[in-house]
User: Fold these one by one.
Assistant:
Number 1:
Amino acid sequence: MKITASSRFTRIAPSKALPLARLLKGLSVAEALRATAFSRQKAGFLIGKVLKSAIANAENNAKQSAEEFRVERVVVEQGPSLRRFWSRSRGMARPVVKRSSHIRVILTND
């Protein structure tokens, strides 16, 4: 059985969240929670929130214990970007792109 949870429009660049997402693949739920809790990155906090939501979905909707599940995948996709400009000399502007991402955690008990 697959359980999913997602967080959309999260203000972190996908390139910064992907390395941690790759680390969590195949870990048990307890190990993945521990890995996100001890990560000093912003991505650790955000992926940890989605992981806790997936655990709650497993316990409430599937009526199964969370210890039976493993992290099948953590998907970090690119969301919309906020486009801003910094003013520069001689009336020029420098673009600033603030990227966002969609984070999805998929748990399985197979």
Note: The longest strand covers residues 2-10.
Number 2:
Amino acid sequence: MPRIVTYNVHRCVGTDRRLDVSRIADVLAACRPDIVALQELDVGRRRTNGVDQAHEIARQLGMAFHFNAAMRVEEEQYGDAILTLLPERLVKAGPLPGLNPRIPLEPRGALWAAIEVDGVEVQVINTHLGLAPREQRIQAAALVGDAWIGGALAHGPTILLGDFNAGPTTRILHSLTRRLHDARDLTPHKRATPTFPSRLPMLRIDHMLVSPQIRVLDMDAPREPATRLASDHLPLVMEFEVRA
């Protein structure tokens, strides 16, 4: 069965404050994913030795990838990526709206790829929402529109995933689950899946939301020594199948 992972990698700096791109790749390899959604990647940034982290992780996993820069400062970039072993095509990458531009908040974006899973094209949208509740509401409203989730649902099975910076009972999640189902509620095993902070995970702020054509078989946030160390988030892993 295919497996998909969402993982905020914290620019590949672990809870031990050590920068290690290969450690992130090793954590992902242990999850045995077919599709990976990553947030907080540095590309060509001096603070992380100029490495293209999206390219390097994809190379180590033997995957194709697409990267969306939510923030650019000259040649330095910071953003999110989708990686996969499966046939894929980029549909869309772009910014999400924020508050007043004069308020210095981190820019946010979303990335949409169509990935062929067992002969069916699945629409995968990766995002990383802001921290302020008002900002999140604006971004969630954009995501549920025809430019993102609405358009994806029109093309078939859909998975929205990423770091939402919001718990499952918040207004933001409620607005998104009007269009998609919380995969955690559909898993038959009902494991606890808090992902943050990784050393002592208490908050469920990384999510996967799915359309009815996605059957959730299992979901886990592995709490291994490596996952507690590699980033400040745990990876969230879902095993699924696509209904006809």
Note: The chain has a mean pLDDT of 95.
Number 3:
Amino acid sequence: MNYKFITVEGNIGAGKTTLSQLLQQHFGAKLILEQFADNPFLPKFYENRDKYSFPLELSFLAERYKQLKEMLNTRDLFNQYIISDYLFIKSKLFAKVNLLEDEYKLFETLFDIIYPNLPEPDVVIYLHAPLDKLKWNIKSRNRAYEQNMDEQYLIQIQSAYLQLIKSEKYRTLIIDTTEADFLNNASHFQKLLSMLEKEYPIGLHYLHFG
């Protein structure tokens, strides 16, 4: 496979981490996962979005940058696969949804300073999950602070993601996860692996399962 740096993206509860871990195990890759458990602002954000949005988004921006910079600067460019369960540019996506206008302008300034220092993924796997499946996954993984998440918030994030993948120039494989089950259906995971062996131009490519 020619794609050395693979990023898995999607809405909250879409299955990003699960698929990233499966790919990491298959390719013997380095794995970059978002550090939710260590972020002290995240539980507070779900209790009071207005008060904690700005420190939350700044903390995620800093942590994502530190993770990607350290991991990608030490990789073996010729032999080492890297799997990440987030795009760095998602920082702007969530900031746009969560921050007030003046806060977002400051955030965007900081983002634009550091963003050019990071390499882009060779391919993005975007998991598009229907709202019911997102809610079921969120309930099943049982993170206490997520259990009362506003449905409208998930819809906002879903819309923002769709705008993002249409506007950014990535090599993006879009998978409708309504039927796909990579964890429990080995044939689905094998089908994805075979798709990753193909060469895709920059742009959107829709992959079908079921």
Note: The longest strand covers residues 5-10.
